[in-house]
Amino acid sequence: MNSVIKLLQSHRSIRKFTDQEIPRGLLLELIKAGQGAATSSHVQAYTIIHVKDSANREHIAELSGGQGYVASCAAFLVFCADMKRPTEASERTGANVERGMTEQLLVATVDTALVAQNVVVAAESEGLGICYIGGIRNNPQAISDLLRLPEHVYPVFGLCLGYPAQDPEVKPRLPVEAILKEDYYTEDASLVEAFDATMHTYYQARSSSNKNTDWSHNLKPLFDNKLRPHMKDFLVKRGFEMK
């Protein structure tokens, strides 16, 4: 394996950071690396908010479910799906823009995820740790109001960046055979069962936050109840009507 593959396979979420700041020049280079990601039709349907105000970061930490590392990390970014910029640019050329299409929502969300993952890989290559914060979708309207997001822009997730103050183990992933299928979709219940055993061993043996569970049981809260049922109405109000 080359160094890039080794880096990608060694990812861990970091939730404890040192007080060391990230040089402004390095942060800008990470964002530029993010911009190198693939983007549908070169739309670049994303905006990144660097939240520097400490009070706002404390508020976002609360709105995200009490995740204190949002406030304590060296830099906190909010990645937003942005269809405002490209649709308005198209409109200025005389195009009769049709807003609110489901495909626009998908394109903007995928573009945002791709640029963020490029930023993450670049950051980890520089010795930084990261943690995605999907919890900002717990209160997306409050987050949008705080960041003054206009219509046709919505916050997809946050990202904590900083120098690690912990060294957690790499969490196992599903076996490749479960996710890589040849020609057709095939059932993989036996592979999931084996993976549950792997995850149970991992959770019992890891250096912190030990628990008696496995992969399947960890998923239960995500599907036992409706997860963030407010998101559809929120997105429609943002202008993503999903027509």
TrEMBL record:
GO MF annotation, one: oxidoreductase activity
Superkingdom of this protein's organism: Bacteria
InterPro entries: Flavin_OxRdtase_Frp (IPR016446), Nitroreductase (IPR029479), Nitroreductase-like (IPR000415)
Entry keyword annotation includes NADP: yes
Entry-linked Gene3D superfamilies: NADH Oxidase
Alphabetized UniProt keyword annotations: Flavoprotein, FMN, NADP, Oxidoreductase
Domain Nitroreductase: 9-163
Pfam families: Nitroreductase (PF00881)
Family that this chain belongs to: Belongs to the flavin oxidoreductase frp family.
Protein name: Oxygen-insensitive NADPH nitroreductase
Organism this protein belongs to: Vreelandella nigrificans
